[in-house]
Amino acid sequence: MKNLLLILTFAFNLLAHGQDAKFGKITASDFGEAQNYSELEHDAVVLHREKNVSFVTSSNRFQYIKVFERILILSDEGLDYATKQIPLYRFKDGVEKVINMKAASYYLKENGTVHQEKVRKSESFLNEYDETWNVFTMTLPLVQKGSIIEFEYTIERRSMYIDNLVFQDDIPIKYIQCNVDIPEYSLYTFHSNPLSSLVPVKQQIPGKVTYTARDVPALKAEPRVKNYDRFRSYVQMELAGVNTPMYSKTFTTTWDEISSEIFKRSNFGKQLTGRSFYKTDLNEHLETNSLDKENLSNIYHFVKSKVQWNGEYGWKTQNGVRDAYKNGSGNVADVNLLLVNMLNYAGFEAYPVLIATKSRGIPLYPTLNGFNYVAAAVQLDEELILLDATIDKLAVGQLPDKVRNWQGRLVKNDGTSLFINLYPTIHSNETQIINASITPDGKAIGDVSKRVTEYMALKYRNVAGDQDIEDQSKNIQEFIGEDGLGIKEFRLENIENLEEPVILRYDFIYNQTIEKIDDYLFVSPLLFTSNSTNPFKLKERELPLELGYPIITHTIVNIDIPDGYKIKYLPSNEKHVYLNNKGSYQLLIKEIGNRIQISAKFIMNDFIIMQDKYSTFKEFYESIVQKDKEKIVLERI
Amino acid sequence: MKKYPTKTWLMWMLIPYLSIAQISYTDLEPIEDDFTKKADAVIRSNKTVLTIKDYDEVQIEQDRWITVLNKEGWYHVDAYTTYDNHSKIKDVKAVIYDENGEEIETIKESKFKDEAAVPGGTLYSDNRVKVLEYTPRNFPVTVHFTSHKEQNNTAFLPSFKPLENYNLAVQSSEFVLINESGEKIHSKASHLEDFSIKKSGMTYIAKNIKAVEREPFSSGLSSYAPSVKFALAHFSMAGVEGFNENWEGFGKWMYDDLYQGIFEIPEAVIEEIKSQTATMSSDLEKAKYVYNYMQNRSRYISVQVGIGGWKPIEANEVNEKAYGDCKGLSNYTKAILEQLDITAYHAIIYGDRNLIDIDKEFSSTQGNHMILYLPEVDGQEYWLECTSKTNPFGYIAGWTDDRDALVITENGGVIKHTTVYNYHENKQIVEANIVLKKDRSISADVQIQTTGYQYSFRSLMQEYSQEELVKSYSNMINGLNNLTFSGINHQNDKKNIRYNESLHLETEKVGAQMDELWLVQPVFFNGGYSIPSEVKDRIFDFEIDRGYVDEDVYRFTLEEGISIKALLDKQLLETDFGTYELYTEETNSGFTLTRKVTINKGHWSKNRYDDFRKFREDINKLDKTKILLTINR
Lengths: 637, 633
Description:
The structure holds two protein chains of two kinds.
Chain A: H1 2-18, H2 28-31, E1 44-56, E2 62-73, E3 83-91, E4 94-95, E5 97-108, E6 114-118, E7 124-128, E8 133-139, E9 148-157, E10 165-166, E11 173-181, E12 186-192, E13 201-205, E14 208-216, E15 234-243, E16 248-250, H3 255-264, H4 276-285, H5 293-306, E17 308-309, H6 321-327, E18 329-330, H7 332-345, E19 349-355, E20 373-380, E21 383-387, E22 407-411, E23 417-421, E24 428-438, E25 444-452, H8 454-464, H9 469-480, E26 485-493, E27 502-510, E28 514-517, E29 520-523, E30 545-546, E31 551-560, E32 565-569, E33 574-578, E34 583-592, E35 595-604, E36 608-609, H10 614-629, E37 632-636
Parallel strand pairs in A: 1-11, 17-18, 24-31
Antiparallel strand pairs in A: 1-2, 2-9, 3-4, 3-8, 5-6, 5-9, 7-8, 10-15, 11-14, 12-15, 13-14, 15-16, 19-20, 19-22, 20-21, 22-23, 24-25, 25-27, 26-27, 28-29, 29-37, 30-36, 31-35, 32-37, 33-34, 34-35
Helix pairs in contact in A: 5-7, 6-7
Chain B: H1 9-14, E1 41-54, E2 57-68, E3 80-83, E4 87-97, E5 103-107, E6 113-116, E7 122-125, E8 128-131, E9 141-151, E10 168-179, E11 185-190, E12 198-200, E13 203-209, E14 227-232, E15 234-237, E16 240-243, H2 247-258, H3 267-277, H4 283-297, E17 299-300, E18 302-304, H5 315-321, E19 323-324, H6 326-339, E20 345-349, E21 369-377, E22 380-384, E23 404-409, E24 412-417, E25 427-436, E26 442-451, H7 453-458, H8 466-476, E27 484-493, E28 498-507, E29 512-514, E30 517-520, E31 542-544, E32 548-558, E33 562-566, E34 571-575, E35 578-586, E36 590-599, E37 602-604, H9 609-622, E38 627-631
Parallel strand pairs in B: 1-10, 7-18, 17-19, 25-32
Antiparallel strand pairs in B: 1-2, 2-9, 3-8, 4-5, 4-9, 6-8, 10-13, 11-14, 12-13, 15-16, 20-21, 20-23, 21-22, 23-24, 25-26, 26-28, 27-28, 29-30, 30-38, 31-37, 32-36, 33-38, 34-35, 35-36
Helix pairs in contact in B: 4-6, 5-6
């Protein structure tokens, strides 16, 4: 009984929506939908979107992707939706084409009837953007705020590759349906994005799968989250096998099978063996054969000096490691497989790690298609060290932010493989000591020494840039600069010495820390390093907040009490904790002779704050800001 | 707003082209050590030969040697050449050399990346570019780029601009103009003496120009760097023959020839407009009606194909599609206005945040934008920005204000200066009633009113959702944390071009409390004036394009139990960069704080820069002044 009810519901759904939206069938009531949305909130709303994917598998293999959509424009900004740009990819067997394009705009006339304005052929353009992409562009006439627009078109694709079925847009969707005709004898499995809580309703009958979703909220970007696309609702289709009366084959595979297979490939496994082309150079470069961190670093920086990343991604080599070595440039795989190759040659236990960058999402099932990047991992004693030689400024153990996407798959040539953590485990550390005294006219003067490690050091190196030390110092000074802070005698160490902490030293004059009012001097205990504002302004978040890596900052300030003053008030010692030790902030102040010593220690173990923890985190940060606002009060004797 | 360039962007891409008799790596002068100061790249030798074959045919050859010193310097290689239906690339090639002058690689034309060159904001254009794709592995690296192309479009000619950019040093740059056509060529030279540029006949040679850096508030490279601009008196623009003796003649040609057959609009539209405006008594009222009519039904779409890069689309077509680019929308508005006997002229201009003039001394194809000039409506002149769906009638602050434009009239081209928004018109007034409470919380009613230039960014808020408003107020009010807003109300008074905001806010734990002492920084709703960065050995003069006035008046009421320990001493800064005033006065219920900032428009010599910094630094500091209160337990 229960099953029957389910089937009935299906049928109802299909009837209700497969039919009622047809191109050109617009009634006055469709415009009434505008009342349900705020134009200040949303620029437009998708009233109906339908995507039908079907295949012709006879002689030539074609895929037809038919799209129909009806959009109601709510604001002037929403007029952009009246311009359609369809990127068309050049597959091996030919470039994609847009066929049977129909498009129209509609507005409601004063007498309550609907005016239809169809697009003309002259209003579309095909732009040969470059060797890989064409762009089909068209724009609709007579569109205004409140107009409804429709597009119906088919993309002809000479490939069986099925795009992800996407159910969420940057504007709300009232109703969306995706139908995929499964080619005869093909078996597919379906995977929905685990990072989205919105899962469309699936209905499957033999030969066809249909997904529907209603009232899908808009996905909006938020500050401090990269590639928010990752959180979109979508379904990925995996070709699991073919099963004909004559023949049957399973494509569904395991990670281990993938691992064995990839080592047989000429653009992967084979790249890890050839050595003759670099042997002499490397032997000359290496002073010892020892398997320690120093030598690891030597080889790593040797690869960076020989091959420059050309900006192209991929886990497959583009030109091959030999060619990359000879010409000095290559894609990610060219660079990093060369690194693995050399490390193995030198005797290190090194492996490739397959990775999906943040823009790629995460692989939902065992498949090579899910990856677009490869890095290197070295097992050294008990430690697994990750390396990426594509970016000049990275040190041993560091990956670029775009690559630190949860897990990567480490593959071994014995056919085994395992997921490894790509997130940083070591805290990035920033320690500084400030010695200050107070001048009679109310300025703080003194000196600073600061030591920065790991990803924080990388940040300083990126800020420093590639020019000479003079420019680098200037860039760093601008970066650490605060209003009213004058920096003198600035010295910078280890900017180029990537395996060492970055060290800054300077003398300062600061004229904004001390207020002289009445007989009092008010002094900010942390001088120019106070957290004076809370950067987390949103009341709540829909997406996680990404801080990048675990952090410890420790600031020690020594302030001499000026002659003729005594302490009237010292802020109390205080400790704030975020979620039982996921983070903490401790401020300690004590008087030692005629000095005040302040220590502020901020520890953040968590670096991805989930939506539901955000308000707790925000409060934690707010309490830090409140604490830092308190002043030392000195009173004239 | 997407008010972006028409086809003239191409002109910028044409600068600089080079070359003839080829030299080899060993012929290059070595680079002296101190010559690389501030430089990311060094032009070793750059030769452009421009040959005028006929009024509609030119040949451009380039031979360019550039040594790139670091990653940033790759930007200066500029190894590309643009083309379209009116030009043909005959040859393009690049050879890469390492530090020792060993050839690393030769990249032939077929290996150049061929791609569409569509500027931002444009839907489609037929311009394309062939660009070198190469990843250098080590620095320094030297690129030898040669190109040769022929073009039938002669409305723009390449200029001689040896110091092409910031952070680029030039050992040698040469420009040769050969005129085989007998056509007259106009030219205009600037700053040649400052750099000892040698000129013989139509050959210009620049030697040893040191790199300069971009400096804050600077008046721009073109105010400093040497250049020679060229233009043909008789030219071809995408197949259309044109004449340019001076601005008057150039404008006359545009008016009489180029802009013909584009004004027709359907009878039905004319009738509708006429009947809607029949009862209006003044031309101003009618003109406003037309502008508003155009704004409501049209949107900005840029398509630039062939002569369409310079000539407006017909008014009929803009009417039918209800979209157009800056030229199309301006022309459409003009066509309707003229049906009501209101005169309007096309005006060619540079649309830019910076004030960039059409060069009144040198007539040539210039500008990247078009607006409309109404010489007299009820005794006053107006400029209309027709790509905006929201601007009040005659409002152009921020993008086309205060600069010379070319107005195309029946008597020829005339240079006119657009509306200047004076500092006293560009005003923001913030008034607030604020209650300070014993628990250190506050509640405040705030009113903000903006006019003039300041209206242009505040009025953007009318499109904001409640969430976006809260976000932007939270970012704006920097001294207070954890704000709660209510009753946000905005009113866009388009008639008086004034934006009104009112809101209520509350927050806890303002300032810092030390025992009974409560230290408060009372300039709550303004401030955050940044301090311009320090520049050693400044090269450029500096300027402020638009002056303005900010006035803040806050009336503080103190809750019972709070008393004043120390208010502010009156602060006054008076400089030629502007003035600043901050003072408090005790009242019955508390005190009033008044802050007034005036920033002047102006151009100052580089040696005043430190004074300017001091002025801004003083404001920054004074805005953080604290008052001291006591809270009775």
